[in-house]
Structures are given as C-alpha cells and as structure tokens.
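Researcher: Let's do a round of design. I'm pasting the structure tokens now; please hold your answer until I've finished.
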C-alpha cells in the first residue's frame, strides 16, 4: 500500500487552518467565536454542494466531509437539546454553541461596517473582544467540528482510493 501524496496546496491550506485555530485558541473571544462558528456553518451546506456536483475521488472526499461534519453538528445540537430542552426552544441562549447568536453578531458587524458608523463599530469591537467561557467553548467546538469534517473527508478519500493490483 502506497502512502497518499500530499500536494503543496493542501499542505499550505492545512498550515493556515492550524495557524488560525491556534490564534483563536490563544485568545478565544466573541469575535473568533463568531467567525469560526459562521465558517463551520457555511462549510456544511457547501459540503452538500460538493457531494451533488463533484464526481470521482473528489466526490468521495466531500461525502466524508459532509457525513462527519453534519454528524458532529446534529450530535452537538441534539445533545444540548437533550441535556436542557428549554434551551433549544429559544427561551435562553444555547450554552456552548449558539448559532443564532453568532449569525446575529456577524450580521450586526457587517451592517456596522457597511454604514461606517463609528459608534456602532466601537461597540461591536468591545463585544467581539470580550473573553468568556461561552466564546471559548464556541471556538473549541467550531474547531472540533471543522477538524472532524476534514478528517472525515481525508478518511473517505483514503478508503475510496482504488487498491493497487498485486505485483
């Protein structure tokens, strides 16, 4: 069995992801939590597009990414709901991984920057710079979800690779 070849492009992408992840974990604040959870949420439907429109070995990788990423998302969301059902109903923010909060903050940031209102931008920078347990857990869970999804894609490609004929 031959080892899979890793391209320079893949290696550079991996280094960038590890660098961003380490930077986010060094000072986990609301800004990192919002960006990473929004990125994780954006990759899940993108993986479905990869499954639908790609063919061959690339599709196998997207299938693995989608299965592992969506599984982590569903497991996380359902475990929060099982542990505390009133949190999912919307009466209180989800502890650990509140997607609605992240998307709301991202929307507010985009509108504040688009309108160039200095007071709103200063307020958002203060909110995004706040470090607390919730932002730390959202950063960690987003990175875990992305890592599991990437590992799922890599495993699927490894399993989907044709076996070499015996020599």
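Researcher: That's everything. Go ahead.
Model: Designed sequence:
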């Amino acid at each position: 069995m031959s080892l899979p070849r890793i391209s320079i492009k893949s290696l550079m992408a991996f280094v960038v992801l590890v660098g961003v992840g380490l930077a986010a974990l060094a000072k986990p604040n609301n800004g990192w939590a919002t960006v990473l959870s929004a990125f994780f949420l954006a990759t899940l439907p993108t993986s479905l597009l990869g499954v639908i429109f790609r063919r061959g070995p690339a599709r196998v990788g997207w299938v693995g990414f989608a299965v592992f990423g969506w599984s982590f998302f569903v497991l996380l969301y359902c475990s929060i709901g099982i542990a505390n059902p009133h949190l999912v109903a919307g009466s209180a923010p989800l502890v650990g991984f509140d997607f609605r909060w992240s998307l709301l903050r991202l929307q507010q940031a985009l509108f504040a920057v688009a309108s160039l209102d200095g007071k709103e931008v200063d307020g958002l920078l203060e909110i995004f710079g706040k470090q607390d347990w919730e932002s730390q857990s959202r950063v960690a869970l987003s990175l875990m979800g992305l890592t599991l999804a990437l590992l799922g894609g890599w495993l699927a490609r490894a399993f989907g690779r044709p076996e070499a004929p015996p020599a």
